[in-house]
């Protein structure tokens, strides 16, 4: 079945960087884009942007475009989210989700990134 | 960015009764392809969000017929015809209009 499995929880210091991975299985990885969404503790969903897996082009929310990079490794069927210069307010669960014509489905299980000194 | 405003933010429902959630957009979501890219998701406690409805009113395969979406332009509604205990969660509308940044509503918490 179609599945997205994300990497495990991370704890980082302010100013550090973090990489979150999202491994896809059960479908042709290059046929669909991957979107990234984050959710701060007790808060709603915030769209970060997406990567066209086949072409590699990306689109970022203006809020994140200076500190975030989306990449992918087609041979590993894995998408990556890199966040630089982490701040306390970046503490959140980060989700990847596959984009099909009908929307974002399925979603990964989420990766908690905690920024703490 | 296009803003989405959901009301109410919290909803307590008796099992078997209907429930409705409104989602109002700051701009029309009618795309140049003739489609309106308004989606509904639910995030059940402790889980990742899951897609319920796409293009305003189309149910994803496997989603209960108790869920329906309606609306056009800037005003949209998600209706649960008969709420069941398993429907507890936070419901979000989301827009994916052309090349603009996608945005979510604030979420509506539904409990029994």
Report on this structure.
The complex is a heterodimer of chains A (117) and B (112). Chain A has no helices and eleven strands. Helices cover 0% and strands 53% of the residues of chain A. The radius of gyration of chain A is 13 Å and the shape is globular. In chain A, a hairpin with a 6-residue loop joins strand 4 (33-39) and strand 5. Chain A has 117 residues and is mainly β. In chain A, the strands form two sheets. In chain A, strands 2, 4, 5, 6, 9, 10 and 11 form a seven-stranded mixed beta sheet that branches. A four-stranded antiparallel beta sheet of chain A has the order 1-3-8-7, with no helix packed on it. With 112 residues, chain B is mainly β. In chain B, 0% of the residues lie in helices and 46% in strands. Chain B has strands at residues 4-7, 10-12, 19-25, 38-43, 50-54, 58-59, 67-72, 75-80, 89-95, 103-104, 108-111. The chains are: A mainly beta (117), B mainly beta (112).
Structural class estimated from helices and strands of chain A = mainly beta
| Main β sheet profile of chain A | 7 strands, mixed
Strand content of chain A: over 45%
Structural class of chain B: mainly beta
Helices and strands of chain A, in N-to-C order?
EEEEEEEEEEE
Of all chain pairs, the largest interface belongs to: A-B, 22 and 24 residues
Count of strand segments of chain A? 11
What is the overall shape of chain B?
globular
SSE string of chain B, helices as H and strands as E: EEEEEEEEEEE
The value of Rg of chain B in angstroms is: 13 Å
Counting H and I runs of at least 4 residues, what is the number of helices of chain B? 0
Q: Helicity of chain B, in percent?
A: under 10%
- Specify the oligomeric state: heterodimer
Distance between the termini of chain B: 34 Å
The amount of beta strand of chain B, in percent, is over 45%
Which residue ranges of chain A are poorly predicted, with pLDDT under 50 across at least 5 consecutive positions?
A: none
